[in-house]
Amino acid sequence: MVSGQEKHRLIRSLREVAExxxxxxxxxxxxxxxxAVKTCLDAIQDxxxxxxxxxxxxxxxxxxxPVIAAVN
Length: 72
Fold this sequence. Notes:
Layout: H1 14-24, H2 31-44, H3 49-63
Helix pairs in contact: 1-2, 2-3
């Protein structure tokens, strides 16, 4: 994530997805960004986290933000 001094952000929860999209995302338009925001709102209403994660990754790719996936 590129926002001010912060170059990277670890996102581990739905709340952190929402914060990233609303507070520090470099743009507020784009098809995938809008879809990610909608999916995040849907996730709050109980859709799988996997679906929200996929939407966030697509929005990051659209915005040119590199994504590093970590597997636990």
